[in-house]
User: What shape does this take?
Amino acid sequence: QVQLVESGGGLVQPGGSLRLSCAASGRTFMTMGWFRQAPEKEREFVAAVRWNGGLRYYDHADSVKGRFTVSGDNAKKSVYLQMNSLKPEDTAVYYCAAKGRYCSGSYCYSSSSEYDYWGQGTQVTVSS
Assistant: This one.
């Protein structure tokens, strides 16, 4: 049985940092990503890590580039999201997602419909 479990969310002041973790069980994945959903908004892509043979690729949404950094360990079935310089507009529920296949294009890794498994989500609130 596949499970994705996120941790690390919480309340932080603007300009602060948080690190999210996601641990998978049941199998390994070639693409793992982070999405977020704010109240009354659609779920949006945040970042992804992809493994293809011995190569590893990192992808970030434009809105978080330079502030967030995704990383992952395929052997440990884990993906992480280091979030720095947080802004109030980063407030959302953050979801970990995983896909068995390697995503070769941006549509694949940035589209929520392409992922096979999802975590339960962790709340991130940026507020003073």
The mean pLDDT is 95. The radius of gyration is 14 Å.
